[in-house]
Amino acid sequence: VNHVVHNGGLYKRPFNEAFEETPMLVAVLTYVGYGVLTLFGYLRDFLRQWKIEKCQNATEREEQKDFVPLYQDFENFYNRNLYMRIRDSWNRPICSVPGAKVDMMERVSHDYNWTFTYTGRVIKDVINMGSYNYLGFAQNAGACQEAAAKVLSQYGAGVCSTRQEMGNLDKHEELEKLVARFLGVESAMVYGMGFATNSMNIPALVGKGCLILSDELNHASLVLGARLSGATIRIFKHNNMQSLEKLLKDAIVHGQPRTRRPWKKILILVEGIYSMEGSIVRLPEVIALKKKYKTYLYLDEAHSIGALGPSGRGVVEYFGLNPEDVDVMMGTFTKSFGAAGGYIGGKKELIDYLRTYSHSAVYATSMSPPVVEQIITSMKCIIGEDGTTVGKARVQQLAENTRYFRRRLKEMGFIIYGNEDSPVVPLMLYMPAKIGAFGREMLKRNIGVVVVGFPATPIIESRARFCLSAAHTKEMLDTALKEVNEVGDLLQVKYSRHRLVPLLDRPFDETTYEETED
Amino acid sequence: QEKEELIEEWQPEPLVPPVPKDHPALNYNIVSGPPTHIITVNGKECINFASFNFLGLLDNEKVKSAAQASLKKYGVGTCGPRGFYGTFDVHLELEERLAKFMRTEEAIIYSYGFATIASAIPAYSKRGDIVFVDEAACFAIQKGLQASRSNIKLFKHNDMADLERLLREQEIEDQKNPRKARVTRRFIVVEGLYMNTGDICPLPELIKLKYKYKVRIFLEESLSFGVLGEHGRGITEHFGINIDDIDLISANMENSLASIGGFCCGRSFIIDHQRLSGQGYCFSASLPPLLAAAAIEALNIMEDNPDIFQTLRAKCEHIHKALQGISGLKVVGESFSPALHLQLEESCGSRENDVKLLKRVVDYCMNSGIALTQARYLEKEEKCLPPPSIRVVITVEQTEQELDKAASLLKEAAQSVLS
């Protein structure tokens, strides 16, 4: 039962996105589970305070014991009592290229995860469903690696200067022209870190007296950039166009909160694919709203560039829209290009302005040359300029893998969030104990998955997240599916009752959330 | 109906104001080839006095081959943040080596130098806490402070009396409200060698103030790591201070270590907290392994050749002396600081004209084979904007003749442009 939307002709393709509602019993049990853990947490803290139980936390220096405590006891309550129990599911060290199969260093804990020791053994060929390797460019051999090696021996690893001073290499200029061509925009600018791209450029674009409308589930970098800019921030419900339209109407009609003056600019911040939900932004509707209300659109394509669209050019191509409609197209090179860094693309005036006033161009080191070369080679491969059809094949393979994997998981009876075409597949677990258990059981069966809980997700909606890659072959996917099936039966996480609530029909309440800088 | 009219009428400002074509910051210098000792800028070959390559490790063959080996093993990117299969054994090794080198318990690496201190400060200092920061603090520190939403108290650059006055005022405030004072954290944020002025911070007095007023110290050592101290351990070694007295040392690996990224080191009690609450650590992809391997090799070289630090400092003294007495330009910075500023002795009235004048000096030097740059700032965003200046960077690879050539060329340029 999939809800298909062709909203007033705005969509040229079916938009299948659904979020099944949490079963009531599961929600209750999850709350009970957290309640029990909290009680135990209080008990253990009590025992530790009265020295009945040994405290294994690092402690303050003797000489500084009378300083104001650095951490509030409550801040770390969650960390000490809940996170510490299942800490081994995260920060797993690997020692090979993060491709479709990866080698992990084995680590054990003899004191319930307070400290880890490495046994020295290596778990080989773990199927990697956790790395953001959408097009499989995380390779240590092949055209990309050879080109990067040549550039490394010629240019060295670092740059030691900022873009505006002496750090602007000819390689950077070449990359920027290529990125602009790839996206179909007038010009582009690249930065050394994806997170910093957001947090350093949003403040350059908007300031006091402007309004930012940000999606509920935006990434921390967008939230930080919005806060640092000093503009007023209002949050609309995730991917909910009625909520966004209401906020837009209110903003233009009522103006700034106290003075009633009109807003200088309004900027809408959305992401292409939301990495925790697996949902794709309703871009045709957002662009229609943007044009009607004369606002500006900032699209963060961290996960969707390279992963969506018939030739990998991102969510704009996926919907068949014009890249010039999006005012600021931002993205990162970490996920689909197997490198690091971020970019912003748009009109020439925008990029010229950013070249002059972006915090990163003035104060932060530019990108390292071998990384730049990796992006140039992989981007040329995706476009097809290297003379092969490898890029196109990978994009198609990813789309096939996505559809196949999601279909099989849904058939097995798991609750899977998100859009049918998104390569990020969240599988709902809900209960805190199952988070740890799922991660460990899958590792025992040689499959590496990512599990996420609070605070990255709402407290009862913890999940396991699979990131598909073009490098995954059908055999690997089948093996993974078989194991997921087994573990799912073992842990009883097959909650789906096939009652899907289409996102459009979800009611939204009238409250709006506003954050202002005081 | 009225609403529809209002919506029709509202006109936003353009997304970005147009930038004039001759804006000084718009036209970048294009460097073809590696930015090493001999650099090709805009087609001309020059001696590099502008890249922060203090120990000359950008071009080092051993560093490059270590990075090549890592590239062959791991590829380029890590495809994930540290929490989700982005932790490589190279990262763990680099953290251990840095902690051992700095003689602290633990170290944590970030993938971007700017993000290091800008994520470290908000992890500890929240709304309601008090931070005393030097006026000449660099932009990354300012952004970290802004993100933390704490109360910022600026004290005059390197003026311990001013800082003590602020601390005493705060103490009086505390006595009025002891309950609040018991939960308000206090920090002092200083740099070892200031990027904006080239001065050194008086750390021994700061330590005394720390214990007297119970404030924690965060030290930013981007310029002094790998420069000061007998073994390059930074300002704590330079002054002979016990490193545990400093709560957090943060530095970036983009200057002396000629790699990319940054690190924080200190006691586990402090550093471990950043693994869950450092925004630039948790929500961002980890450092590419080849850069981590390059940093490890650079550390090896630093440990094996402790005499390069003395050599570097001697060169700094040499050029500091040689640049004295240029008519129209004054040298700003300590004699052993490898990054100093040349400011105009007399401003010609407006910042724009000063910048234009300095540009002519820089162009004169570039045309004659010395690559220099002006220090760049965001004029509207800085809290205390430093005056326009030319940045002169000394590296260990520059020979005495080249230093003398640079000094004499600057004298010539100043004479021809400024008189």
From TrEMBL, chain A:
Domain of life: Eukaryota
Organism: Smithornis capensis
Gene3D superfamilies: Aspartate Aminotransferase, domain 1, Type I PLP-dependent aspartate aminotransferase-like (Major domain)
GO CC terms of this entry: endoplasmic reticulum membrane; serine palmitoyltransferase complex
EC annotation from Swiss-Prot or TrEMBL: 2.3.1.50
Domain spans labelled Aminotransferase class I/classII large: 124-482
TM stretches of this protein: 24-43
Matching InterPro entries: Aminotrans_II_pyridoxalP_BS (IPR001917), Aminotransferase_I/II_large (IPR004839), AON_synthase_class-II (IPR050087), PyrdxlP-dep_Trfase (IPR015424), PyrdxlP-dep_Trfase_major (IPR015421), PyrdxlP-dep_Trfase_small (IPR015422)
UniProt key word Transcription: no
Record's protein name: serine C-palmitoyltransferase
Keywords: Acyltransferase, Endoplasmic reticulum, Lipid metabolism, Membrane, Pyridoxal phosphate, Sphingolipid metabolism, Transferase, Transmembrane, Transmembrane helix
One GO BP: ceramide biosynthetic process
TrEMBL record, chain B:
EC assignment: 2.3.1.50
Catalytic activity: dodecanoyl-CoA + L-serine + H(+) = 3-oxotetradecasphinganine + CO2 + CoA; tetradecanoyl-CoA + L-serine + H(+) = 3-oxohexadecasphinganine + CO2 + CoA; octadecanoyl-CoA + L-serine + H(+) = 3-oxoeicosasphinganine + CO2 + CoA; L-serine + hexadecanoyl-CoA + H(+) = 3-oxosphinganine + CO2 + CoA
Boundaries of every Aminotransferase class I/classII large domain copy: 45-408
The organism's taxonomic lineage, starting at the top: Eukaryota, Metazoa, Chordata, Craniata, Vertebrata
Similarity comment text for this entry: Belongs to the class-II pyridoxal-phosphate-dependent aminotransferase family.
InterPro entries per the UniProt record, alphabetical: Aminotransferase_I/II_large, AON_synthase_class-II, PyrdxlP-dep_Trfase, PyrdxlP-dep_Trfase_major, PyrdxlP-dep_Trfase_small
The protein, known as: Serine palmitoyltransferase 1
Native source species: Smithornis capensis
GO molecular function: pyridoxal phosphate binding; serine C-palmitoyltransferase activity
Cofactor needs: pyridoxal 5'-phosphate
Alphabetized Pfam families for the sequence: Aminotran_1_2
Pathway in which the depicted protein is active: Lipid metabolism; sphingolipid metabolism; Sphingolipid metabolism
A GO term from the CC aspect: membrane
